[in-house]
Amino acid sequence: MGRKCVLISYVWPEPQSSAAGLRHRNLIEALFRSGYEVAIASAAQNELGRQSCEQWAREWNGVSVKALQLNHSSFDEWISEKKPDLVMFDRFVVEEQFGWRVRGSAPEATCILDTSDLHFLRVSREKHSRLIPRDGNPLVGVGPVADAMEWDVDLACRELASIHRVDLTWLVSDFERELLTRQFGVDPRRLAVSRFAYPEQGRAPAGVAARDFGGRLGFCLLGNFRHAPNLDAFRWMRSVVWPKIRAELPAAELHIYGAYPTKEVMEAHSPRTGFLVHGRAESLDEVFALRRVSLAPLRFGAGIKGKISDSWWHGLPVVSTSIGLEGMSDGGSWGGRIADSVEAFARACVELHESEAEWIKAREHGRRVLREMFSTDRFERDFKAGLIQARENQGWRESDWIRRMMVHSTLDSYRYFGRWIQLKQSRANP
Length: 430
What we know:
By secondary structure, this protein is an alpha/beta fold. The chain has 2 domains: 3-198 and 377-428, Glycogen Phosphorylase B (Rossmann fold, 3-Layer(aba) Sandwich), CATH 3.40.50.2000; 206-373, Rossmann fold, CATH 3.40.50.2000. Helices cover 49% and strands 14% of the residues. It has 17 helices and 13 strands. It has helices at 19-33, 47-59, 74-82, 92-105, 119-129, 153-165, 174-184, 206-209, 228-248, 263-267, 284-288, 306-313, 322-325, 342-354, 356-373, 376-394, 401-428, and strands at 3-9, 36-42, 63-67, 86-90, 110-114, 168-171, 191-193, 219-222, 254-257, 275-279, 293-296, 318-320, 336-338. The strands form 2 sheets. The protein has a 7-stranded parallel beta sheet with strand order 3-2-1-4-5-6-7, sandwiched between helices. Strands 10-9-8-11-12-13 form a 6-stranded parallel beta sheet, sandwiched between helices. α13 (322-325) links the parallel β12 (318-320) and β13 (336-338).
């Protein structure tokens, strides 16, 4: 272990609860294999994620865990002692909170922003989706919000400023890279794509992933309910889509799993209508082992959808929307069906559930996408290329006047605001 990396995370990574958590595990393992000593740091309070990180620290010599205090000089002292070669910020709000401290105490460190997804894209789409009734058509605003007046301007400016301040931004889809370069004029050198990694055999035992059409029945829906697109998808499925599916398949069951279910979610459990809410799953095998079709009825969102790739990995075709398709296909085949209206979505679910030939074809297409887009080899290549690109970008920091302008005009405000909060807290707690 010669080089040092600090990963400052918005929340402690939870690989079993969210796609972002799985991606963080991929990154930490890749850093570790590349010879980095990795410190995972967060000010979050999600204990399950912290326990996962502490378990990694026990398993891997060279991985450590650091609980942070917000708006506190202890971070400056800690990172100054660490002297990291690389600092990764998990989402732009973390770069806003800690970026100025890193630049003051570890100015030589290469800085990378890991977006997980473009926050301003997802939130702008969420606001747009509120204008569409749940039983209306079209289902989603396909593609980016076309009218600049419909962007969430505050979030867009903040996230774009963060992208300009760091040496490299990691995105999880080609769509988001093209959006930033074409519509927002971001220099392509600032951006790199790094997806997820799935081992060739997958986590699931061969018997589970290989279970055939006749050994499966019914539908499943998976999603962390703290994530707004998943809660909206749950509501849309419950209120208008599932009744149409049950009208065609009266004995069908939908099994719903996800971390952090709300009271609304748990109270929707209805054995009489086959709408079965289980809450957090102990393992993905529990979610996928006996089900025939996985559902991802997303009306808005961004980035990579782990629920879709997890389904393919466990041998299930997926019915989703154009939002679900985005970032999950190379333009070729898709492992299931895509439908953007209530009627079309319900019809696709019924047809894929009932047709063995279509089901087998869809499953094979899903496996092909995993092999070609989400393999461990491809992730490792993209990861290493991104690190090289970030270090090269350091060479033009001084000549990059957009970056210097963003650092000068925005980081001072974060620095003075952070110090004001720290002073206020110290006076309140002498």
